[in-house]
């Protein structure tokens, strides 16, 4: 049985034909049609010796023809037949054709083949000879004309056109500018610095208020107590159950905790000395002087954080947690150390705010008194 031969281009072949060629080449036949085609093409490029195999010679036909270089007309060497044809034409027409070109030896032919392919126009003498070959005299003898006709197309082969990009297009192409990149980076740095400064100033304004400090300390204590007292439960949420076990947990308090009297007793005993008693005294007692445009209508603040912080320290120290341990277990979740420390820090910050605002608050009543005295004196008299 004769061996199977493969020929033709790979592009128009069907997938079944490509699979057969891949099996014959002993390469992988898996994948799509394009993948098999690319795999066969790479295998043929890597193994040029397969062109000697009759079964695969047809696959190398177009590749070999495309690889052969095209020599320009200036590099062609006239043969002996062309020379004899030129002599015959010269004898019949009476026009002598002189060829003053260099003699092509074997070494010169090798160098001409190895030289780079360049575009060029034929010299005047060669052009005249070619024109003579194209228009031979009418005679019954036609062998020379046929030889000339078969050789002239080789002189008409033109090399690839060399295209050049216009300078106007090159000028319009934008070039990367270091100054633009530097200015953009500096702008980003400036915006980031301004945003950070704004956040810092906003945080400073919030934390520099003694009322906010008192509320934040109370909120932190409440969150810690809820975290310790409530028996938290979790729900596992898986984002991609098929691909992986990636997910997160959601914590939630059981409803039975809010029905327990112990939970509410712990919160009440904590809120008494921490929130209720300081809030009552902070609303009733205020050591801030009256700050108003007129002395007859003072503007009193609704809540004095300094008074509330001082009363909170006293209540945390005097509240009978030890006596209440017999009725409710674990009633003091924070402990005396942390309760007093938290209340003392809030009171110290409230004192700092009051001391910083004292000179301005003390100067305002004196200024109002001076304005009142000047308004009561008759015109033209000095105080």
Automatic annotation (TrEMBL):
Cellular component GO terms, alphabetical: membrane
Region: Disordered, residue numbers: 64-146
Stretches that traverse the bilayer: 213-230, 237-256, 262-287
Low complexity: bias regions: 73-84
Entry keyword set: Membrane, Transmembrane, Transmembrane helix
Protein name according to UniProt: SAP domain-containing protein
């Amino acid at each position: 049985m004769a061996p199977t031969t493969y020929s033709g281009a790979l592009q128009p072949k069907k997938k079944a034909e490509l699979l057969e060629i891949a099996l014959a080449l002993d390469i992988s036949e898996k994948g799509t049609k394009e993948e098999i085609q690319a795999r066969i093409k790479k295998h043929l490029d890597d193994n040029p010796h397969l062109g000697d195999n009759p079964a695969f010679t047809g696959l190398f036909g177009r590749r070999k023809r495309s690889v052969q270089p095209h020599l320009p007309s200036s590099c062609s060497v006239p043969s002996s037949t062309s020379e004899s044809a030129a002599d015959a034409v010269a004898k019949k027409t009476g026009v002598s054709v002189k060829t003053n070109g260099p003699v092509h030896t074997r070494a010169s032919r090798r160098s001409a083949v190895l030289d780079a392919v360049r575009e060029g126009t034929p010299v005047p003498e060669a052009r005249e000879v070619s024109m003579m070959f194209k228009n031979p005299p009418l005679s019954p003898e036609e062998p020379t004309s046929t030889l000339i006709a078969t050789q002239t197309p080789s002189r008409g082969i033109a090399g690839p056109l060399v295209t050049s990009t216009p300078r106007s297009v090159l000028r319009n192409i934008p070039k990367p500018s270091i100054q633009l990149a530097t200015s953009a980076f500096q702008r980003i740095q400036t915006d980031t610095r301004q945003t950070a400064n704004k956040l810092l100033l906003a945080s400073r304004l919030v934390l520099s208020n003694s009322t906010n400090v008192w509320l934040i300390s109370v909120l932190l204590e409440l969150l810690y107590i809820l975290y310790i007292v409530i028996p938290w439960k979790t729900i596992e949420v898986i984002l991609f159950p098929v691909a992986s076990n990636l997910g997160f947990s959601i914590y939630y308090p059981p409803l039975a905790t809010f029905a327990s009297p112990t939970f509410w007793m712990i919160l009440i005993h904590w809120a008494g000395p921490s929130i209720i008693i300081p809030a009552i005294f902070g609303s009733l007692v205020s050591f801030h002087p009256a700050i108003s445009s007129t002395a007859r209508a003072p503007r009193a603040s609704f809540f004095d954080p300094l008074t509330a912080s001082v009363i909170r320290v006293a209540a945390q120290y005097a509240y009978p947690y030890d006596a209440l341990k017999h009725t409710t277990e674990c009633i003091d979740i924070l402990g005396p150390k942390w309760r007093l420390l938290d209340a003392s820090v809030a009171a110290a910050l409230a004192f700092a705010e009051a001391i910083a605002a004292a000179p301005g608050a003390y100067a305002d009543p004196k200024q109002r008194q001076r304005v009142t005295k000047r308004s009561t004196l008759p015109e033209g008299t000095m105080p």
